Amino acid sequence: MLNVENLKVFHGLIEAVHGINLVVPKGQCVALLGPNGAGKTSTILGITGVARSTGVISFDERPITEMSTEARIKEGISVSPEGRRVFANLTVEDNLVLGGALKPEGKSERIAYWYKTFPILGERRDQMAGTLSGGEQQMLSIARALMNDPEILLLDEPSLGLAPKIVSQIFEMIQSLRDEKRTILLVEQNATQALRLSDYAYFLNNGRIVAKGRPDELGGREDLMAKLTGIT
Amino acid sequence: MEYVVQQIMNALAFGAEYALLALGLAIVFSIMGLVNFAHGEMIAVGGYTMVAASALALQNPFVIIVAAIGVAMVASVTLERVAFRPVRYADPTTGLLTAFGVSMILQNLFLLFVSPRPIAVTSLYFLEWSIELGSLRISSLQLFETITTLIVIVILMFFLKHTLLGLAMRAASLDFEMVRLSGVRANRVFAIAFMISGFLAGIACVFIMARRGSVDPHLGFDPVLKAFVACVVGGFGSLPGAVLGGFLLGAVEVAMLVMLPQSLGGLTDAFVFGIIAILLIWRPDGILAPRTEKGDKQ
Amino acid sequence: MTLSRGMSRGLIGAAMLSVLLIIAGVITAYFGSRYQLRLVYSAYVNLLVVLGLQVFMGNARITNLSHSAFMGIGAYAAAICVTPQNIKALSLPNAPWGLNAFSLDPLTSAIIAICITGTVALLVGFIIVRLSGIGATIVSLAFLVIIHALFLYRTDIFKGNQAFFGIPQVFSLTSVVLLAALVVFGVRIFRESRWGVALRASADDEVGSLSMGVDMYRLRLIAWVFSAMLLAVAGIAYAYFLGTISARPFYFNHVFLTLAMLIFGGMRTVTGAVLGTIVISLGLEMVRWLETGPIVLGVDLPEALGLSGIALGAVIVFTMALRPNGVMGENEIEDLVLKK
Question: What is the ipTM of this complex?
Fold first, then answer.
């Protein structure tokens, strides 16, 4: 569904990603792993069009490289970004409404669905999103990203900065998304959990793909694990 | 007693006008960090539209008012599209200087292509008459101005809280990129912001014209300055701050007019600014300034 | 004492600029009509203002809109001190605090004026340097309006929009040219000094520098006060040549004009300040000539009042859109001639 060829992503004049290829087939969860600073978030920024990039990005066989960010979102890409970035000065409910901007029909049903899936969001529906805890914000960020019923969900570091108990809740959530056959590109530093959830994985280091394969193939590769965790 | 009521009306009317003007500035600033000094010229554009309307023998005041507001809105959106788009994502200083430049260009375009001299606009004089309530005598125009401003503020609040674009605008003031990542087009958000700003300028224009009765190229300078001061006092970028600042400025101005003895009459402005200065020393960022911490995502 | 590389290049650059300025001054003095002499003089005064502006804006990277106010404070302070008592008795009959009862020589008056301006700058600066970029700009604008209102309304001291006359005209083109050369050196030396370098570094990365122990507020304050003192010098040069001043020149139009000069030339360098002043001064004269509706190539052009305002506005808008760092960008004059 998402096909990335020779993607180079730039921050100003600095090239952060040096020409990578990756594929996210429909209905699968693909993980993009790597240590800090590897270029994982830059890849996401390149795909969404926020950062300047070269290469070919195709979505559903259609090239989207020349499209603006908003147009790409309209094509069916949705992102829950690094740091969650909920709209702090809007209520939880307003966050969901704004997340569903592109699909106003059926909005109330979808909001009700998310309140059922994440009861805590329902409880806090009129609270300012900025006052939510980290875990709650992450749930909100994911729910918001799914409000306009996207074709693919880009999840950038959902476990970042969260307590272990919350992290497992989040990963349970992602698993249920998988069970719904959603297409997901999961960027994570927490490789163990991510590998458990994905159908395929890419290892990124210093802006290049250094390994790729199915989780059962990669899990045994201790050299990669060492790179990630610093433990040999 | 009548005197007190009269002065309260004065303060409300001044404050209402300043609040309208300040809101126009604050809306644009909150989204894109642009101090739109050309806002005053939107008022002048409205005034010149009224001149054009009378030249076309359009007498109906309703038509004239709608035309003035409409043209101000169109001019405002055009300005965004033409002049401010290149500096849209630049730092606030670049935007401020561009706005200065645009303001200068527009003022001189009026000078060059219309007239350096004031042109009379009498079609709105009818709006001002004396209302007698018992022993009180108040100006109808002040009443209209205060009530209209309050209605406009309520409408604006409704728009910002309950419409998608309103939500987008509020969210954009903190994280524009994320708004775009939710699929809302940046162009649309900017256009709406400038349209609202133009609308507010148009309404202010109606009241200013009704009072002044004439338009000249530099008409916009004083209002935008007052709007600017009101925003600074209330906290630049904060919409409630703009309203607060506007009414505060109006109150202080009337208070100075009342309290200063006749001989020091000309010093009103100086005293007003003096009080503003003290306020700024106490709260350099303005009273209701939105807090951004260094290192926050802009 | 060994100079840093930046400082030695800075001195070379300042010398090159000074030579150019002196040559221009000499040419005008010998060949220029009286009218042209006045024009060139005011261009040099504007240069002093733009240089003063560059000290703060170019190093702290914060837009300052109050510079004309400081120029006015310097001009009025010197004017009040230096104007002979008998003239002040006529022009300021109601002056408080015995301001019309004394007069000092031009040098002392100038020094007092610079000190007063510096003190005011220090007081205002305490607030301004702690604010964010746009916040500081906004407060500086408020300051401009406040000072102007003060000038207009304390007519017993300042005479408002009426001419404050009788200032002894002790300056000539020579004086202002030499002054300009001196200030070019001063501004350039500041830029390459460890304060200037530290300030520019912290302007680019506020949080980073603070964490490295750079006292950015103090640096900004130093630049701010230095800038204000240079602006006072400009105001004094203005007053000492014209012999009369009023409140009008120290307000928005002047702010705008000098800002356009600095922005066009490039606010990050001293060369930018000089280049911008020269180009805009010349350009503006040409546009003003066009405004009068002259006869060009046999065609009688119509009067076009307002053209200069449009031209100035266009300069700012186009510079901001196309080349926000100005013509010179990051380059000083010696960068064009010497190898980097």
Answer: 0.90
